[in-house]
Amino acid sequence: MFSLSYLILVIVTCSLATITSRVLPFVLLKKMNLPLRVLEFLQFVPIVIMSALWFSSLFTPRLGHLPKLNVEYTLASLPTVLSAILTKNLFVVVIIGMLSIAILRYLGS
Q1: Can you tell me the distance from the alpha carbon of 39 to that of 37, in angstroms, rounded to the nearest whole number?
Q2: Cβ 68 vs Cβ 59: under 8 Å
Q3: Residue 75 contacts by C-beta under 8 Å, 6 or more apart in sequence?
Q4: If both were cysteines, with which of 11, 39, 70, 87 could 92 make a disulfide (CB 3.0 to 4.6 Å apart)?
Q5: What is the per-residue pLDDT across 50-101, written as a single tens digit (0 to 9) for each?
Q6: Beta-carbon neighbour count of residue 49 at 10 Å?
């Protein structure tokens, strides 16, 4: 059985690790000047990460078989991607994505 002090220690340690990994790069990079080529490369990192997350959620892995297409997420992706192309506003894209999946799940149940 876990004790309360152990639980608090785990939460504090995980919080420190998370804060350090997110804040430390900003603090270090604010004082450094990166070469232009590195800055150009880093501009694509968020796009690549979001694409990888999106693409991996479209497929359900199956051991020993090809991945199966997740139809619900694929259908919800269509208006979401369209809103991203038209508005280029992250807030709108997130709202459209959430509404799309909510409507599909409501209609499916």
Answers
A1: 5
A2: yes
A3: 100, 104
A4: 87
A5: 788 888 889 988 899 999 999 999 999 999 999 999 998 889 999 999 999 9
A6: 10
72: amino acid identity, one letter: E
Of 52, 51, 107, 61, the residue nearest 84 (C-alpha): 51
What is this structure's pTM? Answer: 0.59
Please, are residues 79 and 96 in contact by the beta-carbon 8 Å criterion? Answer: yes
The DSSP 8-state label assigned to residue 60 in this structure reads E
Contact 72, 51 (CB under 8 A): no
Two structure tokens written together for 87? 């508005």
Question: Cβ(16)–Cβ(9) under 8 Å?
Answer: no
What DSSP state is assigned to residue 37?
H
Closest alpha carbon to 80 in 58, 62, 97 = 97
**Rounded distance between C-alpha atoms, residue 88 and residue 69, angstroms:** 26
For residue 57, give both structure tokens.
Answer: 């959620």
Taking the C-alpha atoms of residue 18 and residue 75, their distance in angstroms, rounded to an integer, is 34
